[in-house]
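Support request, please re-run this one:
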Amino acid sequence: MFEGSSKSKGKINSKLAVIEIINRQRQQNINVTECREFSERALQAIQQKSQKASIVFVSDAAIKKLNREFRGKDYATDVLSFPVKAEAFEKEDERNLGEVVISLQRANEQAKQNQISFQVEVKQLILHGLLHLNGYDHETDNGEMDRLELRLRKRLGIA
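Re-run finished. Output below.
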């Protein structure tokens, strides 16, 4: 979705995860390396098989546009997840989970409201988005995703 026009881009390779970080906003400073390393650990904690995903940081205006286009909701949200689905003519790449898009403006406001650090809020949103890419849905699963997310926050040191 966002490939090719990033302001800051990086990859990390490991046995289990390939995480790409794309920063497409200028309002908030973000530690890309720390986010990439956390994303890799989070993905490994969620799924113990080889996977890859992209984390995209955007502004409120950009996420509002995506939220309106893909969910029919005309407001800025904190995080959106876009699982990869192969077209009929494509071979399915089971490793590629998709993209997590995060508004860093929303993250900054929520961090202040929740009295936590900006970086911890961003990590919570990354984890939340990665859970969605792995098929979890807190709107339909009777609390399963929420319980798992809380356990993973503790395990990953962001409780």
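The helical segments are 32-46, 60-71, 104-114, 118-133, 144-156. Confidence is low (pLDDT under 50) at residues 1-14.
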